[in-house]
Amino acid sequence: MIKTGLQWFATQTGLGASSHLETGGFARSNDTVEHPNIQFHFLPSTVHDDGRTVGKCHAFQVHVGNMRTQSRGCIKLSSKDPRRHPIIDPNYMDHDDDWKEFRTVRIDFDYDQFSAIPGLFRKCVQLSRELFAQKSFDPFRGDELAPGKDCKSDADIDNFVKYASASAYHPSGTCKMGPSSDKMAVVNPENMAVYGTENLKVVDASIMPSIVSGNLNAP
């Protein structure tokens, strides 16, 4: 890791010069969806735990994510001390629609054998399999290792998702803006001021009243 960092710092070349997420795309889960609600990231390698661990084979991988989740979490204060971290409960996959619309998975492809490693939510398992079943992948595709060819039913996929799901760290809506009549709104949309306070405004993605189909955080 240090060698990679030094090479990039000195020459702007090598593994550190790439984000390794250079190909991606968006899709709609069905024709009734107005905005794309599924995102794909393609990687020319296998990684686990956000890259902290790498796979043991030469492979490529796709990460798939739910961009318009209906589940809602919460944030609570852990202490009166503002330096203490709050208690964050993302409450992932709590809404039934998330299970109905999305069966996503992160799939890896060995250059010689097709392999897969756990990833995210339901519908996208089907889309990922359809994508890599295309003729253009014939020279590279082998056997599916995970979730595996025997993982077909909703129950099978749901069990896999419960085990393999992870966050991509793009939260929003924790300080929703809206009219004072909205009990869930804490920010005035007219001036970005926090209701019930003075000289306190919020102007980042936390004021979004609903989730957008895009990544909100930058490196």
From TrEMBL:
Residues 70-219 form the Glucose-methanol-choline oxidoreductase C-terminal domain. InterPro entries: FAD/NAD-bd_sf (IPR036188), GMC_OxRdtase (IPR012132), GMC_OxRtase_C (IPR007867). GO terms for molecular function: flavin adenine dinucleotide binding; oxidoreductase activity, acting on CH-OH group of donors. Belongs to the GMC oxidoreductase family. This is Glucose-methanol-choline oxidoreductase C-terminal domain-containing protein.
